Amino acid sequence: MANVFVISDHHFGHKSIIDFESRPFGDAEEMTETMIDRWNAVVGSDDKVFHLGDFSFLNKEKTRGIVDRLHGYKTLIMGNHDRGRSRTWWLEAGFDEVSEHPIVYAGFFFLSHEPMYMNKHMPYVNIHGHIHGQKYEGSHYINVSVEHWDYTPVSFDEIRRLVVPNEEQ
Predict the structure, then answer these.
(1) Which of 4, 12, 22, 53 has an alpha carbon within 20 to 30 A of 67's alpha carbon?
(2) Can you list the domains of the chain with their CATH numbers?
């Protein structure tokens, strides 16, 4: 059975993000190669990955070169830095599916780029990116920005353990 992963905010080609977020890379090329290696170390060719936005600052050809190297069936939920390009642009850049809006996964998880409003009475969990190294308090939010996960996609099994720690998997 294929595994499902989530991750966000790679910012491929955005060298300033190294300083903005204190990323441990010497330059954008090292950042790119490390993040591709870490993705492919956990994601298999039959796995599915939801990328929750802000994927690449590069042109379509260079972006496609990265997408093509990444394992798995890749769905992009467009982030604020992705929305300047059309859904078609991202499909042509190699994503298998592209959504301009948040989606509900497994009837319980809201997958979005920016954190969504969630009050404590809502029985859902918002898996999001956008805020990089920051974190929202509470069990309703899980930030999957690369900075929190060692630049590696996180499996839904791990997310489930965070939400319901003692649940039998």
Answers:
(1) 22
(2) 4-163 (3.60.21.10)
